[in-house]
Write a structure and sequence with these properties.
It is a single chain. Helices cover 23% and strands 29% of the residues. By secondary structure, it is of the alpha+beta class. The strands form two sheets. It has a five-stranded antiparallel sheet, with helices on both faces.
Length: 185
């Protein structure tokens, strides 16, 4: 079957409690497989439809080590940088700074909740592109946070596992109120 003629589909988001969310995803071995390439197109369509900063394959019930980083400013993250959607296959963190910062995170898999999550401020990473090229790069700040959040999904970890106190949790409604107050003149 020729996957180039398929229209990408928006996939259903698996929520907390689905077994795939807590399992370690499997390595991708045949990046050029047409079915895998069609799945990547579906993943890209899904993250765009959901206005997500990123997405991991387990979030759409696929146990594969694939993530997409796709930050764009929106109502949920008005301060996000703009980045072209970047597909990362078998991503890994090679180095992390000793500096850790806390910031608010939400997740398509855990709707309606935000948490204050500690993350490394700078990281060096390696991944395969969908064309099977190997890329090494460094991310800082928001992009480092999104990468770590998505890679956690590949290891069966959700942001709630990293929150240091339940007092660091808020509802999405309260988060929107906090953002509105932050950006008032």
């Amino acid at each position: 079957m020729d996957s180039s003629n398929l229209i990408p589909r928006v996939l259903e988001i698996a929520e907390l409690g689905a077994p795939v969310i807590r399992a370690r995803a499997t390595e991708v071995t045949n990046i050029r497989d047409p079915q895998l390439q069609a799945f990547i197109d579906d993943l890209l369509a899904t993250v765009a439809d959901e206005s997500g900063m990123g997405i991991a394959a387990p979030q759409v019930s696929e146990s594969q080590r694939i993530i997409v980083l796709s930050p764009q400013p929106n109502a949920r993250y008005p301060y996000a940088p703009t980045m072209e959607p970047t597909v990362m296959i078998n991503p890994e963190m090679l180095w992390a700074s000793s500096e850790i910062g806390k910031d608010w995170e939400g997740c398509l898999t855990v709707p309606g909740i935000r948490g204050l999550v500690p993350r490394y401020q700078a990281i060096r990473i390696r991944y395969h592109t969908r064309q099977d090229a190997i890329v090494e790069t460094t991310y800082e700040g928001f992009l480092a946070r999104v990468f770590q959040h998505e890679v956690d999904h590949l290891d069966g970890v959700v942001f709630l596992d990293r929150v240091e106190s339940t007092k660091d949790l808020v509802t999405e409604k309260e988060w929107q109120r906090m953002i509105a107050q932050r950006h008032q003149p």
